[in-house]
UniProtKB/TrEMBL annotation:
All residue ranges annotated as the Amidase domain in the record: 27-476
A GO BP entry: mitochondrial translation
Species the sequence originates in: Culex pipiens pipiens
Pfam families in the cross-refs: Amidase (PF01425)
Protein name: Glutamyl-tRNA(Gln) amidotransferase subunit A, mitochondrial
Lineage of producing organism: Eukaryota, Metazoa, Ecdysozoa, Arthropoda, Hexapoda
EC number: 6.3.5.7
Entry's localization field: Mitochondrion
Length: 496
């Protein structure tokens, strides 16, 4: 390959259609890139070389015969390692599942595969998705491709817990990647890595085959370089699924982004509570600049209040740990997960298997969740948290009665250094990193993170748009307009 690679799915599809690029040749180049240059970033846990080449050969045959399956046919895509992929190991970056090879695929990957997508590999993550930096994996931390240095501990974190997927896209290896979003785990790394990160409405995309963390908040997320690519992937994976009772039963109407976008009459809300402690000056200036840009284009920009925002992170933490304690109970060394060599008793086998299979973060959340769920604490913590969660959802309902969308920061700053990030505990870092993102999961509403500009340190700064339930069509339309105005410069995909 002796020319610049296509940057978007549309360009790639056109190259395949014109025969200027072949899916097999392109996939071989992608696999070399993932294995060599990007290896130092530690974005991938496993490269699926054999299956990728087989999928690419099949795609090439379809392109040559004129029977392509759609815009994703032959496109290289990465999948976070908590989505089951048939015959490809799925570990959740944990020792507990390091030998697990699923016999079935998650619905989201199954639909992408049926659309002709090529699976490059499984991406790195925080163990079981419990983190906000992709630093707690048994395979080591993922390094942000925007880092000034990759040596020692002076690299920038990728964000979490879908940091591997974000780096796979940002570095140009893949056109899209699947992440999961429980409290911002798609949008947070999207922000730090300068890519688009979408959390769809809860129930719009099937969770079947996504190894659960918090069932009531988990949503498959999408990471791409452009809003249009994000819409293309969403169109491929969204819609009812008989294997997931939480998906909506109404057929999904594909998102169609207009070429010409008018913002006159659009109402944008600026939540005052998101102007919080720890918000960097650069993020604040970026937030203000984009709000002014929207207003200049004919939108009405007003302040709104979401009073329970300050309580949201605490409620999220309680509910997260309660559901974690329930979901992790299945990993007992007998039915699921790592089995210890301990054979003194069944109880000892359970204890040793879980002690060896889980890291400290997972153990801490399990123990804390069990504490909250004790009979004497149930009403005081879990039940009260559910009540406040309802109030948080009502905050959004009231806000969206006045405005069409909310514009907020995604993260409070650009990507921190790994050396600084690990000085804080997992709990403290999640409270900071998820502050702006987790309320959307509490309300179940869609949200998208968009890269806007580079900081003084040449690191991406992003903003977040949130909308009412099932407003993906309009949400992505406004996001595309912002994207066209800011013209964020991604890292170029070259022939290295």
């Amino acid at each position: 390959m002796n020319r610049r690679l296509p940057a978007t799915l549309r360009e790639l599809s056109e190259c395949f259609r014109s025969k200027s690029l072949d899916p097999l040749t392109f996939t071989e180049h992608t696999l070399r890139r993932a294995s060599n240059r990007v290896k130092q970033l530690n974005a991938f846990i496993r490269i699926a070389s054999q299956s990728a080449l087989e999928q690419a050969v099949a795609s090439g045959q379809r392109h040559r015969s004129g029977s392509t399956l759609g815009p994703l046919d032959g496109a290289t895509i990465a999948v976070k390692d908590n989505f089951c992929t048939r015959n490809v190991a799925t570990t959740c970056a944990s020792r507990m599942l390091e030998s697990f090879v699923p016999t079935y695929s998650a619905t989201v990957w199954d639909r992408l595969e049926r659309g002709g997508a090529v699976l490059v590999g499984k991406t790195n993550m925080d163990q079981f998705g419990m983190g906000s930096g992709t630093v707690d994996s048994i395979f080591g931390p993922t390094r942000n491709c925007w880092s000034e240095s990759l040596e020692g501990e002076r690299f920038r974190i990728a964000g979490g817990s879908s940091g591997g997927s974000a780096v796979a896209v940002a570095s140009g290896v893949c056109f899209a990647a699947l992440g999961s979003d429980t409290g911002g785990s798609t949008r947070n790394p999207a922000s730090y890595c300068g890519v688009v990160g979408l959390k769809p409405t809860y129930g719009l995309v099937s969770r079947h085959g996504l190894i659960p963390l918090v069932n009531s908040m988990d949503v498959p997320g999408i990471l791409t370089r452009t809003v249009e690519d994000c819409a293309t992937v969403l169109n491929a994976i969204a819609g009812p699924d008989d294997r997931d009772s939480t998906t909506v039963k109404k057929p999904f109407k594909p998102v169609e982004l207009p070429e010409s976008i008018c913002l006159k009459g659009l109402r944008i809300g600026i939540p005052v509570e998101y102007h919080c402690e720890g918000l960097s000056d650069e993020v604040l200036r970026t937030w203000t600049k984009v709000a002014d840009m929207l207003e200049d284009a004919g939108a009405t920009v007003t302040s709104v209040s979401l009073p329970y925002t300050s309580a949201s992170i605490f409620v999220y933490s309680i509910l997260n740990q309660c559901e974690v304690s329930s979901n992790m109970s299945r990993y007992d060394g007998i039915e699921f997960g790592l089995r210890s060599d301990e054979d003194a008793s069944t109880e000892q086998l359970y204890a040793r298997s879980r002690a060896e299979g889980f890291n400290g973060v997972v153990k801490n959340r399990i123990l804390t969740g069990n504490y909250f769920l004790l009979r004497k604490n149930y009403d005081k913590f879990f039940q009260k948290a559910l009540q406040v969660r309802r109030l948080i959802a009502e905050d959004f309902d009231k806000a969206f009665a006045k405005v069409d969308f909310l514009l907020t920061p995604t993260t409070l700053s650009s990507a921190p250094l790994y050396a600084d990030f690990v000085q804080g505990t997992n709990r403290d870092q999640c409270a900071v990193q998820d502050f702006c993102t987790q309320p959307a999961n509490m309300g179940g509403i869609p949200a998208i993170s968009l890269p806007i500009r580079l900081s003084a340190h040449k690191l991406p700064i992003s903003l977040q748009l949130m909308g009412p339930n099932f407003s993906e069509q309009n949400l992505l339309t406004v996001a595309k307009w912002i994207e066209s105005q800011v013209e964020f410069e991604h890292i170029c995909a070259t022939n290295d």
